[in-house]
Amino acid sequence: TNLKTCKLDKDPCLNQGYMGPACKCLCPPGTKGKNCEVLKMSYEDAMLKLFWPNSTKITKPNTVVQTPGYPDAVNSELVMDIVLQAGKCERVVLTFEGFSVMERSAQGLCQSDKLAIKSKVDDASPRTFCGKEILPGQVFKSDQSLLILSYHGFNYAGVWGNNGGTTGWKALFTKERIPGCTG
């Protein structure tokens, strides 16, 4: 092993880092420092940023979430996930200010431009919206402390050279106490 090659009894690398063949710690995403001792962000958040740079996790209430450039929805086939996280015994409350993306197809499907909202990571049947199906002031609440928004945008600029008459979407993330929760 590298520890033996480096003449070390114990691995000095922290935060899931490990000793590399050059006798230096190899640090996982989200950490830095000689021994990976500085935790910049959780591994989960670092991987989210690495593979989905437009995606984010938000825990601070009174945060506005929106499509980039709202209300000018010229998104180049943007794909992003926004994870909204409330605290223990709290639920996410999401209030929409505006929502205007491509309409459903003739077959009733949200195809190229859509927003899916789910309360569980493994939810196989999220609520999916397109067109103007979410009204200003409409509120969505999570079952527990998590609400996940998955957005897939359409390349309006590439097809029409403008936003196709849509604005994207904008909402406010707040949270509220779950009645009766003592966890």
From TrEMBL:
Name of the encoding gene: LOC108666105
Family annotation (Pfam families): CUB
Keywords assigned: Disulfide bond
Taxonomic lineage: Eukaryota, Metazoa, Ecdysozoa, Arthropoda, Crustacea
TM region(s), chain numbering: none
Segments forming domain CUB: 54-176
SUPFAM superfamilies named among the record's database cross-references: Spermadhesin, CUB domain (SSF49854)
Protein name: Blastula protease 10-like
Statement: the UniProt record of this protein carries the keyword Iron: no
